[in-house]
Amino acid sequence: MTRIQFRLATTADLPVIMNIVDGARLFLHHQGIPQWQNGYPDQSVFRADISQQALYVGVENGQVVMMLTLMNGPDPNYQKIAGTWQQSSNHYLVLHRIAVTRSVAGHGDADAAFAFAIQMARQQGKVSLRLDTHEKNHGMRHLAEKYQFKQCGTVWMADGAPRIAFELVF
Question: Which domains does the chain have, with CATH numbers?
């Protein structure tokens, strides 16, 4: 079992967060996944997440090894879906912008992040947890299926990019 502890991120965490994102961006590029290749997400996105108390870091042995954003619904990108959400309520939590430092990738840290996100959604009394990912991001798709998220259809990001939408209902 992982020894990762999650806490809200602060602006002091931004350099490490950006290093994690840069590593994830390079990994996605090498996998042929066009996600995160256009400069998004950048520091301004994470500053906004911090100001909304939505950005979390995972700390292991005193080092930040991962990050994830948990935002309250409704998500504007989820208002239109080619498919059907399981729950019509806007009382859901969204898992966005998850990345693990490459040095610990494959050690179960993403599992810890999913468990944390599910725990937070349940603690907050949400009806569901939603996420989206690029169709070629097989790692994220595998994790969504592993945690029994249901594939609900396609949503589009602000830049028009399609993403596969998943939802886990409680």
Answer: 5-169 (3.40.630.30)
